[in-house]
Amino acid sequence: MSSIRHIAVLGATGSIGGNTLNVIARHPERFRASVLTAHRQVDALVALCVQHRPALAVIGDSTLEGELGRKLAAAGVRCDAAAGHDAITAAVSGDLCDTVVAAIVGAAGLDSTLAAARSGKRLLLANKESIVMAGPLLLAALQEGGGELIPVDSEHNAIFQCLPGGRPDLGKSGVRRLILTASGGPFRGRTRAELSAITPDQACKHPNWVMGRKISVDSATLMNKGLEVIEAHHLFNAPAETIEVLVHPQSLVHSLVEYVDGSVLAQLGNPDMRTAIAHALAWPERVDAGVAPLDLAAHAALHFEAPDLSTFRCLALAFQALRAGGDAPAILNAANEVAVEAFLTGALPFLSIADVVESVLTELPPQAVVDVQSLTERDRTAREAARRILRNAC
Ligand SMILES: NC(=O)c1ccc[n+]([C@@H]2O[C@H](COP(=O)([O-])OP(=O)(O)OC[C@H]3O[C@@H](n4cnc5c(N)ncnc54)[C@H](OP(=O)(O)O)[C@@H]3O)[C@@H](O)[C@H]2O)c1
Questions:
Q1: Domains and CATH numbers, the chain
Q2: Is the Cβ–Cβ distance between 79 and 56 less than 8 Å?
């Protein structure tokens, strides 16, 4: 067995962060959480530090630095404390970790994900928004750093497992299609009329997965699957026409790979993110994830159906952005983040999330992705456009 992995868990207080720490704690002889970060939840971060004893804790909101230091001391935790966006990026690049779990939600995770890629460490990618925004830049950073990316998103982790040696290059693998499964979210089978008065709490009640609120809304609109299509395109060098989405309400088949000889390989398991996280942490070995064995006889039937693109327009918009190329996926992502936030605060109806995204994509034709600075500027422009559209709609 290899030596102990020192792991930076970015977004430690979130859903993926919690699942990652759960797996780490099961294997103290293999894994150590050496850096933990959060955004504003100081108390939750301190509680995790009490339990996992990292070398460094970082709070993203720099106004909370003093409070973090005081509370760590009061809890008897002897670890360094730092604050601010740049401190998270610096922690990723430093020598406290050899593995980075990128589990910050949204575009806020871009800089730290890129820094992890550049530093040549093992990058466990959960923060799909960063690869959607900056796919070519992230792949270039990975090549520059010489490290490895193991996908944590369950669908991409499944595809990684179904490719020979996890080879992330479709062209060389005899692959015909990547088939991403989607649960269909809490509103599968509903009509547009039935979705007009959906509340945030209804949207966040996913039938199979327990997740953060942003990704839960994305799952309900199917934008999450759209982001995953773009993620798969970059991770596996797969053209849009080789990626398909298949609704599978039980969420037991996490995705499939079809080969030119007609073979279709699938990865199955209970819907529990610890499987993908444990796989990515231990790869190429396997460790116990604490996940219950899959009882297929108890489930009896597995169902599959095509997605309803006219009701769940966000998925169609994501395919449109992927085909448009350039920074269209970044524009899509920025508009979606603003629209989802507005929906979660009650300022935008559920069905209007797609309207806002479509309007911003129409207003801002794609430009080439050149560097992080220009991409960040375009992200800002798209957010401003989305906010203006929201103001005008109210
Ligand atoms: N949850 C899942 O099952 C799942 C599955 C596949 C992929 N993913 C992806 O994984 C990522 C995390 O999802 P999640 O569901 O774990 O989200 P979550 O539960 O909302 O947690 C988000 C984490 O990010 C931190 N954070 C938020 N804004 C930040 C900022 N501006 N700067 C620094 N840290 C910030 C939060 O800190 P505070 O707690 O202090 O706010 C929290 O630790 C997302 O990109 C999601 O799409 C999630």
A1: 5-152 (3.40.50.720), 159-393 (1.10.1740.10)
A2: yes
